[in-house]
Amino acid sequence: MDYISTRGKVGAVGFIDAVLMGLGDDGGLLVPKRIPQVPADTLAQWSKLSYPELALELFSLYTDGEIPREDLKQLVDDSYAAFRDKDVTPVRKVNDGTYVLELFHGPTFAFKDIALQFLGNLYSYISRQKNSIIHILGATSGDTGASAIEGVRGKEGIRICILHPHGKVSKVQELQMTTVNDANVLNLSVDGNFDDCQRIIKDLFADVAFKQEYHLRAINSINVARVLAQIVYYFYAYFRLDEKVRAAGGVNFSVPTGNFGDIFAGYLAKRMGLPVGKLILATNENNILERFVSEGVYQPGEFHMTYSPSMDIQVASNFERYLYYLYGEDSEAVCSLMDSFKKDGRIGIPAEKLAQVQSDFAAYGVQNDECLATIGEYHDEYGYLLDPHTACGATASAKHTAQGETTIVLATAHPAKFNEAIELIHIEQTFPPQIQALFDKPQFQTRVPGTNEAVKAELLKFF
Ligand SMILES: *Cc1c(COP(=O)(O)O)cnc(C)c1O
User: Which N-terminal stretch is annotated as signal sequence (predicted)?
Assistant: First the structure.
């Protein structure tokens, strides 16, 4: 399978090169040259597969023989063996018409583990194949860093350095990152905010000599391997529904959305042939994507603090992939849209494109008080505790699920990760033992000033 850039200026590359490239060399995002199609009889066969078996089939379509099947199977099995639920991503029924797809049974209790466990193993595999050390460098506002560290800790051929803003991630998130004591992990606690961390990373990646000497690689959500790993659970969840429910038609997915990676995987699943009804795009008060779906204008708004910080984004880094398909895989059109975004700070689309957007997605931006109200409602009526991100998905689902339809809400984090919000409505939860245990462990991190030089000096020591 060849991968090409949304901006059309990267020659076709294979899967492994696409993974290593991360961001396209022309500034665009990599996409498969054609979307593989899954016919109905294959869907029927797949419906009986276990999670790792299904992942193997889907990954085979996208890697197309580049990784021998036995190796790919090993990678998949290693990636999902550590999940705490035998189904990896179990589906729970809440009421007639609503199901929750629990994506938080991995090591850090957030859905990012599903892709980053796989990406960690894949990097380690590539490092062995190429016989060279891979250095991963990333910035996090919380979930990604912990998940990326868990994905590669103790693995041969990989070193990872994660920057987080000092004192500005949740306590559990900080502990998940900094209680890891493996020699290949470096946590830098940076004086400054998340944007400072991101700027430093960007500058270091732009230093081409440094990047090449140390084989620097990224882990952000635009990596094509992450999108791929997220396709699996859309299929898997669909297959868990009763035949009767599926036959009634209109199985929707409601997706708590930040950088548009997760819901884009759902879009691909649909384009591959999974009979998805609506893709419901749930945002919080940072609602650039909701406004795009309702008005056809993509323009950052004012920043709001919310209870769902992992969805607090101003621009969605995977969005360009959707624009590429919206414009019929026309990379010239994408270039000119992205140019106008750079120049004017906004993208506007014509009415006929907006009609297409509205047939691809329904969207709802959840207000802070609605988010808490939904957590309370699910707790009282169904005895089910939602985290604030999932609560955005559940609220949007209630707005957009018509009578007789079924919606699967993606649960992107375990409530214990975001107790600050849950406490506000006086719900007491018991932490899972793995999270409770973090509070007694020593922390390993280096505090640094928020400058390129300071971070680079630490990296040189570490490498
Ligand atoms: C990252 C994250 C999201 C947003 O996912 P995107 O792929 O960026 O849209 C939602 N919920 C949680 C808990 C997350 O960690």
Answer: none
CA distances to 212, 234, 336 from 230, rounded to whole Å, are 29, 8, 29
Q: Quickly count helices (H) and strands (E) in the chain.
A: 21, 15
Please indicate whether residue 226, judged by its CB atom, sits closer than 6 Å to ligand 1: no
Residue 60 to residues 15, 76, 163, 349, 431, Cα–Cα distance (Å) = 11, 11, 34, 36, 38
Q: Are 281 and 263 in contact (CB under 8 A)?
A: yes
Buried b (16+ CB within 10 A) or exposed e, 73-84: bebbebbbeebe
**pLDDT band at 405; cut points 50, 70, 90:** very high
How far is the centre of ligand 1, averaged over its atoms, from the C-alpha of 316 (Å)? Answer: 11
pLDDT at 170: 85
Question: What CATH code would you report for 91-109+225-424?
Answer: 3.40.50.1100
Regarding the beta carbon of 413 and ligand 1, being less than 6 Å apart is answered: yes
Q: What pTM, to 2 d.p., does this model score?
A: 0.95
Instruction: Please report, for residues 91, 159, 390, the alpha-carbon distance to residue 396 in angstroms, rounded to integers and kept in the order given.
Output: 18, 40, 10
Mean of pLDDT over the chain: 94
112 among known catalytic residues: yes
Per-residue pLDDT of 1-37, as tens digits, reads 999 999 999 989 999 999 998 888 888 999 999 999 9
| Confidence band, pLDDT 50/70/90 cuts, at residue 171 | confident
Cα of 388 vs centre of ligand 1, distance in Å, is 11
Q: Which of 234, 300, 243, 299 is nearest to 268 (CA)?
A: 234
